[in-house]
Design a protein that fits this description.
globular, three-stranded antiparallel β-sheet, Nucleotidyltransferase, domain 5, 18% strand, 240 residues, 10 helices, 47% helix, alpha+beta
């Protein structure tokens, strides 16, 4: 479950409008299972918003795509197949990044991991599951709102560029982390809907995330997670 944040700048031309995009942050929620024990991690790039090298777009995109290529995780996003992942690929090409393991494809679709194939189990777009055509396709915010999951809180995507121009990268990272958590909670709900979790397992998965947020929010760099947890707990009471 991941979210990439980009700042866009529109430049008018006589007969063409171009949109310049720069990836300034990527956040991901990682769930791993080892010996039946579930581990959760919330990771963001750049790790240090004040580090000039880490803040470069080439470093952010290259680190993320090459980490995927090395670790081969199952990717889950919302509108990620048509938008987020494609933008990352576009910016990777534009910045001259090399990511051979991420780009590696099997000779036959069923013979290995493929992040490019439509319908691949290694690149799941939740919007394709819940969406239809036109107005029947909800935004992430619309979908999670009816589920009692925190959606857009204090800001939305339109505020990313102004924050970046003001040098407030930490607020962009927090915004991306909220979206990554929201996407994770929606995935849990869909997995439960599909019968992959029992009632008890679904409850346990949510408790794990609540405990994770309580623990992580004690750290200075994650203090903003208290706001997310408070909003989630409030919505749970309203929808229970």
């Amino acid at each position: 479950m991941w979210k990439q944040g980009g700042a866009t700048e529109e430049e008018p031309m006589p007969y063409l409008k171009t949109v310049l995009c720069r990836i300034v942050s990527i956040s991901t929620m990682i769930r791993t299972v080892q010996n039946e024990e579930i581990q959760l991690q919330l990771l963001s790039l750049p790790h240090d918003p004040k580090d000039v090298v880490q803040n470069s777009e080439a470093h952010i995109v290259g680190t993320f795509l090459n980490a995927i290529g090395k670790n081969k995780p199952q990717l889950i996003g919302y509108n990620s197949h048509s938008a987020d992942l494609k933008i990352l690929i576009q910016r990777g090409v534009a910045k001259g990044i090399r990511a051979p393991e991420f780009c590696k494809r099997p000779d036959k679709p069923w013979e290995g991991i493929d992040y490019f194939a439509r319908g691949s189990n290694w690149n799941i777009d939740l919007m394709r599951i819940v969406g239809g055509a036109g107005k029947s396709t909800p935004s992430l915010n619309e979908m999670v709102t009816v589920c009692g999951i925190p959606g857009k809180m204090d800001m939305d995507g339109q505020q990313v560029a102004p924050l970046w121009l003001k040098g407030e990268l930490d607020k962009i990272i927090a915004y991306n982390e909220f979206d990554a958590l929201t996407t994770y909670l929606l995935w849990l709900r869909l997995a439960y809907f599909g019968g992959f979790f029992s009632d008890a397992q679904y409850e346990h998965e949510q408790e794990l995330l609540q405990n994770f947020l309580r623990t992580e929010s004690q750290k200075p760099e994650y203090i903003h997670l208290k706001d997310y947890l408070t909003e989630w707990e409030k919505l749970q009471k309203l929808t229970s």
